[in-house]
Amino acid sequence: MVGAHPSNIAMLCACSAALTGVICHYAASIGRAAQLMDKPDGALKLHKTATPVVGGLAALLPTFFVSLFYWTSVAHAPAMLFTVTAATTMLIIGMIDDRANLSPWWRLLALILIVWVVFLLKPVFVLHTLPIDFFGGHLLLALDGWIAAPVTALFIIGFVNAANMADGINGQLLGSVTVWCIFIAYYQGIEVGLPFLALASSALVASIYNLRGRLFAGNSGAYSASLFVALGAIAAYRLPGAKMSAEIPVFWFWLPVLDCVRLMVGRLLSGRSPFAGDRNHFHHLLTRTMRAGYAVAIYLALLAAPGAAAIIGLTWANAVLIICIGCYGAFVFLQHRMSEPRRIERPIFAITSRLRAVFLNISSSTARRQAAVQPETLIQEVAKRSARRAG
What we know:
The chain is mainly alpha-helical. It contains 14 helices and four strands. The protein has two domains: 6-339, no CATH class; 343-391. The protein is globular. The N and C termini lie far apart (137 Å).
């Protein structure tokens, strides 16, 4: 039987990372065999060649095996077993989606059903009270009676959708999952939080291959990993002995959620579906001004900064969060202003064109006058010379 000693936990995390490395190494063969290949379309998918969509499978499958082994051998955490089961189910549905391109509404329906089953079997994941402290102010959000489960489900589904929308450049999703898992493991403790340490290790390995363009996480990775993280965050707050306050996840998840709300509101205002794809995400705006590697680094730094500050104290976390939101808002605003040169420069071009047209008209009129006057001048000159000779 494996003990809960840190060295044994480190060994399990290393095993998870090693299994992930093996799957990533054979990603192309696995992707072709399972028909999980993402082909470029020249519109939203701009990669050059067909790429295997097995990054989520590579990161999550070893994590789930290691977690089940650990919980059956060492730690007894029945609540966390539900997180693995729910995430595994979502991983399978995501793989079907990556292969058959399911409708977003079918994915949403599947996610709702999975979340409700978790609530029915393990009510500890339903939030009933949310005491929130911001800048010294205290707010108690009470979710009594029937409203608790729908509101909690809305939180989870909203975050999962936001995380999926944030999977746009290589290294972004898997890097985000790594950051979130480290935070959750910190608050859950090393024993209960082993699955998240394992996932952080595996996601880090998979992100190396992802950054090289050798594989994608796909919808399977985005939906499954984000659901696992969402349930883990609730467990870190609700399980007995939890030391995490209710507002802490706000400092973790603020960036994808804020960007998701901005995009969905913008799409609705323009008469489009809130689930329609485009290239106006925050990560797309970043890549317009810098290389993808720098964009990922800035994105992850903004994402992690408030959560890291929360470990020091809530006052620091609130201040850092406001600074990060300000940076996000200013960058998005400037990028939208810069991406509309026609609206800004059209009056200048119009005035220039009109001045040029007026100048050409004046020039052509002068030339016509000169052309009309020139024959009369020659006739008069000839007449004068004839008169002189006659005199």
